[in-house]
Amino acid sequence: AQKITQTQPGMFVQEKEAVTLDCTYDTSDPSYGLFWYKQPSSGEMIFLIYQGSYDQQNATEGRYSLNFQKARKSANLVISASQLGDSAMYFCAMREGRTSYGKLTFGQGTILTVHP
Amino acid sequence: DTAVSQTPKYLVTQMGNDKSIKCEQNLGHDTMYWYKQDSKKFLKIMFSYNNKELIINETVPNRFSPKSPDKAHLNLHINSLELGDSAVYFCASSQANRQNEQFFGPGTRLTVL
To answer: Does residue B71 belong to the interface with chain A, where contact is any CB pair within 8 Å?
Structure first.
């Protein structure tokens, strides 16, 4: 079974609008971390935001926020005020367990295109 | 000031050859990783080292052998290269803390002809 599912292969958004990228996860471990990474066309992987399973509040980092719904096992990324430079592939990932050096399991990715 | 660096960035080689990819991090992290990104952009863990000790070895052919001479370096050696090894290989590092985000290198695009 897929541990991380991103159901949107591609998304389009108008510049300055907000966009939500979906991510659902599957784990039986009560301790886990959820991550979002951005991969622009140049290929590098850029860390965006993190949410811990015990965190009470949704994570925010600048224009990025994570809509964490634990009961639904979803961790959607919200990008506000989209910019042309946000066009990229976005990956949701999970680290399971208390081990602080656990592997990341990635979703399939969502390609975001921002239109001017 | 590159945090995680990999060499080479591109590697084109013939089937059957042996090649190495080097990774270095200057972040003082104690854990390093190798990931493989296939042609469909799917990323999967291959290996992880913590303080030079192998802690994760996913189902990877034993033609792939990681080596960590010290905490700042994690190299990947691949023997008898096959067409299916063509991919982008990412090195990453992290520090044991609550968040433990992994910082990725720029990737090495390996093409096996």
So the answer is: no
